[in-house]
Amino acid sequence: MREIIQPLSEKWSLRDADLWHLAAAKSLQEQLPELLLFTFDLQLKAAAEGEKMHA
User: Fold this and answer.
1) Beta carbons within 8 Å of 43's beta carbon, 6+ residues apart
2) pTM value?
3) 8 with 47: CB under 8 angstroms?
């Protein structure tokens, strides 16, 4: 998971738990390309949109 978290942490300014959630969803996206991340947090939403993971 570290290989996913490191680049995301450099790209997005997120709190620890939000970064972990984004990285977890990103790692699952390879197996489930239709996976989207739903959040009410505006920073996490922006990062998810930037990673093409938010509707």
Assistant:
1) 12, 13, 14, 15, 18
2) 0.88
3) yes
Give the three-state DSSP class for 41: coil
pLDDT tens digits, 18-53 = 999 999 999 999 899 999 999 999 999 999 999 999
Residue that is written with structure tokens 């949109």 in the block: 49
- Give me 14's structure tokens: 């997120």
For residue 48, give the 3-state DSSP assignment.
helix
What are 9's two structure tokens? 């942490």
Distance from chain centroid for Cα 37: 7
User: Quick one: tokens of 5?
Assistant: 């978290």
Q: Which pair of tokens denotes residue 50?
A: 């930037």
Give the DSSP letter string of 2-50. HHHHHHHHHH----HHHHHHHHHHHHHTTT-TT-----S-HHHHHHHHH
